[in-house]
């Protein structure tokens, strides 16, 4: 598929998702929303309402999750019906679980065929996503997951693909492209194409080129899903070029193996069906066709209308947080400390002595004489240190921006910006390592010069948040709490 064949779209005014959310809530019968900060949990039977397969529900229960987050409740029902999705939602609200559950729900494992392809921008994030797939597919023993990224011998990856081809591949674009070009990674059977932190991969010219090359190795007919906490308007248009749209789409709908004969211009009532259960009701207006074929799609939960023997897909579902103020985490307390560059070490040590914490992440621009994670480190060592921190063997992590996106460590409740982030997007992703999924957290930023002060002002203006100077004393209850583990926190 040539790059020129990627469909072009006119940038259009985004439609609000409020009505869709209301409709979704209505289908849950007596479902009501319980507000926890800015996170709306659905007071009902929770994940069971999403009509997921029993194996997934068992895994979700084992993880201690009960209620889907707002973004999960809004996206998963559409994703499991095969709809293309572009989703921007705040960090820590469970975006990873959307595509992991949606792809596992629809997956029919075929020996020797890669069906799911997930790409992200860092090795650590790829590793984390692969573990999420393993966690949620624990009762699907036939499903094989592999992760591929640079910094490790490519021969090992080639051996895995040759001897035990995975059904789900997670990786970074550079390594996946190298494997694809040599023919070791065969992508002609891919049905699901996912980009996590898509703004980073589409916005970076080199990474975008790799993503496009990989995209052209996959079939034209597939489901495409893209996710990020930050997604500028100019990149939204680019993201949609990877997706399919028809000018007058039929609607994902249902019935079982029969034909609906209609007269052009008339309206017929069709039901959504998932797993044999009525999902919702809609009206379908056939335009120029005399008949609408209702067909099941190979053991997938949703069935889709085919017209003139071609699958007609709805336009991509777009989920955006239009008000950027909503992108910051509700339970996160944010402060700054004004000081000189040579005063940072002493102040940091004083704060670590004074504050109570579960785990801490300290962000800076380059390597630091401490236990750290940074790009110059050998990959095996990077993963080992990441796992130590994830397993709570270490309580303080010093990291560069390498760790600033997507990484989900549930016990982190304090983030230090030892060095000021270079822009507002980076600030948002960094501080979101704490206070995830509506819980409490604390972010402290060191401001040592006028440039730092300007960046801090930009953060406050963009996200409509007031960041005060750090007081002498902070109420412990404002930034630390005991996690109950009853919500899906995978990002």
From TrEMBL:
Protein name: RNA helicase
Native source organism of the sequence: Globodera rostochiensis
GO molecular function, one term: nucleic acid binding
Top-level division of the source organism's lineage: Eukaryota
Domain DEAD-box RNA helicase Q per the UniProt entry, residue ranges: 45-73
EC number annotated for this UniProt entry: 3.6.4.13
Annotated stretches, region: Disordered: 1-32
CDD domains: DEADc_DDX39 (cd17950), SF2_C_DEAD (cd18787)
InterPro entries membership: DEAD/DEAH_box_helicase_dom, Helicase_ATP-bd, Helicase_C-like, P-loop_NTPase, RNA_helicase_DEAD_Q_motif
